[in-house]
Design brief:
Oligomer: single chain
Structural class: mainly beta
Number of helices: 8
CATH topology of the largest domain: Porin
CATH architecture of the largest domain: Beta Barrel
Number of strands: 32
Largest sheet: 18 strands, antiparallel, barrel
Distance between the termini: 56 Å
CATH class of the largest domain: Mainly Beta
Helix content: under 10%
Shape: globular
Strand content: over 45%
Radius of gyration: 27 Å
Length: 623
Amino acid sequence: MIRICTPWWLPVVMVCVVGPPPALAQLALRPTLQASSQPGAISQGELRGIVQDERGGVLSGAVVSALGSTTAFAVSDREGRFVFRSLPYGPYLVRAHLQGYVPARARIVQVNGARASWTLALARVDGGSAPAILAAGVGGVDGDAAAPPESLTDNHDHDEVAWRLRHSKRSVLKDARDGTDDRGNPFLDDPLTNIARAVGNPVRLASSLFTDLPINGQINLLTTTSFDRPQDLFSINGGTPQGVAYVSLVAPAADGEWTIRGTLTQGDVSSWIVAGSYARRVDTNHRYEAGLSYSTQRYLGGNAEALKAVRDGARNVGSMYAADDWSIGSRVHVGYGAKFANYDYLTEDRGLVSPRASVSVRPFGDDPVRIHAAVSHREVAPGAEEFIPPTTGLWLPPERTFSPVGRAGFIPERLDHVEVGVEREWPGHVVLGVRAFRQSIQDQIVTLFGAATGIDATLGHYVVGSAGDVEAAGWGASISRDLGNRFRAALDYMQSDTRRTERSPSEVRLTRIAPAVLRDAERIRMLTANAEGVVPVTLTRVILTYRMSNAFADSATTPSPGARFDVQLNQALPFLNFTSAQWEMLVAVRNMFREDSVDGSVYDELLVVRPPKRVLGGVTVRF
C-alpha cells in the first residue's frame, strides 16, 4: 500500500530553524499573527503601570498578576514599572505582591486599544499605615480592645463580614503592639501570632484565604451532559449527567511562572487529567515554556463496544512539550517548539512527535504590516481530544468512550502543514489578514456517532477510523474589529481544494455505514464568526462561535451544507464577592467537536458525523 511519508525537506528546515530541540514536547504558543493564522482570532492589547509604596517611592521586584480571560504575571523593574503584552481585550483583576508589604486590594482594569497606565500602591507591614495585629491571649481584654483605633479605619475591608469581625466582642484576641503578651512571653513564641504577622491582617485572613498570597487560581464545579434533541434531556436517550471538578493554581516568581491544573469526573467513565508547566521570560526578547500532562480513563459501564476497545479496563495518555520565543529587534519574531505524546491504546507507534516553527517579520519599520510563515508536522491519535488538555477554553476530563471502525484498529493521523500570510492593523482597531496554505494528510481521522450511523452506541460513545490520505491547498482571509471597549468580533473565510490520494484501510466498512466521509476531490468553503463581549450593568460575558461550511458529513451519503456552534455565558455574581474572589455562573452549549488549531487539518471538524450537543453548567470561582 502506498503511503505519503513526511517530506524529506521538513526535518532539514526544522533543524536549520530550530536547532537541537531541548526536549520532546507541545507547542503551546501560537503564531504572532493570530488574526491570519487562526479563524476568529481576537484583538490584543497592553496593560502597563507602576508599583509604589505609601510615600510615592517606586518598588522593584513586585509580582503583579492580571486575572481575566487569561492569567498573566509580570515583575516590576528598577523604576517600579511593569507591562503585560498581548492580553486579549476585556476586564482583568490586577493585584501586586511584595514581601514586607501589605497587598493592595485588587482592582478591575479594562484592557482595550487605549494605552493607559495604572498605579498600584503597597504599604509597609511595619509602617505607620499597617493595620494592627491581633495576638492570642488568656483572660480579660482591655476596655478599648473591641474597637480599632480611628487612624486605622482607612486600611481595612469595608464589607459587612469584615465590619462584624472588627466590632465583635473579643474574649481571647487583643491588640498587640509591644511584641509581648500579658505573661511576658516573646511575641514570636505564639504560633497564631506568627500566622497573623505573616499574613499581615487576621481580618483579611478570616475573609479571604488567598488575598495575601502571590497565587492566582480558579475552581470550577460543573455538571455536563449530552443530547441529540432537546427532548432527550428528559428521557433515557440523553447522556447521563456527570459532575466535573476543575482546579487551577498559578504561582509567579521573580524568574518565572509555575502553573498546575487538574480536573476529574466520576461515573461510568471515571477519569482525570493533571498538568503542570513552567514559563520564564529571560528578558524582553526571549521567553520559553515547558510542561507535561497525564490523563487516564476507566470505563465501568455496560457498552460492549466500549469494553471491547478498552484493554485492561483503562486508557492512559502522557504528553510533554517545550516552546521557545525570540524577538530579534522590533521587527523579527521567531518561535519554535515540539510536543511528544504517548498513547497506550495504540497498537503501533505509541509515541507521537509534533514539531513546529514560525517566523514573523515587520519589513516596513513603523508600518503595522506583518508577514509570517509557519511549518509544522502534527501527529495525533484518534480520541486524543479526550485526553490532551486544550490550549484554550474549558478543561474537561475524558468523559466519552470510543472504539475503532472494523479490524484496522486505532490509526494515528499525520499532517504536514505549510503556511504564509500577511496582516495589517488599520485605524479603528480593524485587523485584516490573508494567508495561503498547503497540507499533506496521512490517515485523516473520521469520527462517527451512533445516532447517525446505525452503530449500537449511546451519546457518550463514538467510533473512529481513517478516511485515507488527502492533499489540500487553499487560502483564507480574516477581519476583526473591536466594537467599543466591551465587544469584539471577527470573521474568517477559508477555501481549499482537496483530493484523496490513498484509500481508507476501512473502505468497505465506511462505504456501508458513512459514505459521506470518503471524499475523492472537492472544493471546501468555510466561514467562521466569533463574537465576545460584556453586557454593561449585568456584567454578563458572552462568547459565541458559529461555523458554516458546504462540506459537513452530517448526511450519511453525501457532503451537505451545515453549521455548528459554541455558546458560553459567564454571569458575574457580585453579591458573592465578599472576599477577593470573583464568583461566576457558567452555562455553555456546543455541538462543535474539535478545538480550533492553527495547524489543524481542513477536515478535522468536517468529518465528525452528527456530534451530539453538549450542555455544561456550574459555578466558577476566580481568586
